[in-house]
Write a structure and sequence with these properties.
about 140 residues, alpha+beta, 3-stranded antiparallel sheet, 5 helices, 3 strands, about 45% helix, SUF system NifU family Fe-S cluster assembly protein
């Protein structure tokens, strides 16, 4: 079986598990008008983690899959570790050297690099978590 097919199946499965029915006042709300992706995040603590993070995501399979996989990856990570994850994801999307081990299953989105219009879909949850932690947008 082709590795890209495996990655596609992983992304589709994770997209079906993405949170989307939360009703809360968001601290960060981002959209991707090109695809219709919409993500909201809130945290009641200065350093967001899976336990205190509220997320609602609606959009394409790539955005929803990236959101769910990001949430799984940031579990038990500090704000600095999450920022490093975001930076590496951004590097992967821009054809720069990145830490594949740090990204783990998120390398499934490597194929998105060949679809430039879909990069925004994959990066939206990462931009949102970065903005939630740092109060501003990632400069990549």
């Amino acid at each position: 079986m082709d590795l890209s097919n495996i990655y596609q199946r992983i992304i589709m499965q994770k997209a079906s598990e993405c949170p989307n029915n939360n009703q809360f006042d968001s601290d960060v709300h981002l959209t991707n008008p090109t695809c219709g992706d919409d993500i909201s995040m809130a945290s009641d603590e200065k350093e967001p983690n899976v336990e205190n993070l509220q997320v609602a995501c609606d959009g394409c399979i790539i955005c929803k899959g990236a959101t769910k996989m990001m949430l799984e990856t940031i579990q038990d990570k500090s704000a600095d570790q999450i920022n490093e994850l975001v930076l590496n994801m951004s590097k992967m999307m821009t054809h720069e050297d990145y830490d594949e081990e740090l990204l783990g299953d998120l390398v499934a989105f490597q194929s998105v690099v060949h679809l430039p219009i879909r990069i925004k879909c994959a990066m939206l949850p990462f931009k949102a978590i970065y903005q939630l932690i740092n109060g501003d947008d990632i400069n990549r």
